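FMN reductase
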Amino acid sequence: MTIAAFCGSLRKHSLNRSVVNHMDQTSDDIQVLSLEDIPLFNADLEEQGEPEAVFDFKKAIKEAEAVLIVTPEYSHSMPGVLKNALDWAGSMTYENVLDGKPVMIAGASPSVLGTAFAQEHLRVTLAACGAHTMPQPEIFIGKAAEKIDKDGKLIDQGTIDFLESALNGFRVYANGINNL
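Predicted structure tokens:
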């Protein structure tokens, strides 16, 4: 299985990037994508043809069997860069590559609640794109600054074990969705 994974933060030392990197380093089936070069969604750009960064991003999602999104929470919602990438990926002009795709959501935050509000909004957006978001477990990594060291390494064994279990469960979920 190939899982296209991306972080909803552009920060180099983001807690969420640390989570994506941990999952990538401990799994052979994750391909990490970048949102850095994706331009702001603009239908005028679509009319001229998909920008190269958008084409590459959508191609990677289309070719993957599943998607992992790790999101921070900004002002009780997902970051604009993540919403922007999903607007491109779910656009119907060329191809909505999220339609029918199994998706797992995770998020890390220094707050106790993790990224609960952001994930709620993210689920609504993914549903509008036709994605099949894994309903359980919900992965809210609260107090993440205490679980990730200054070098960006995940150090909390309970969180490490939970992520491994959730990812294994997601593989089963994704196989089930893909075999419908």
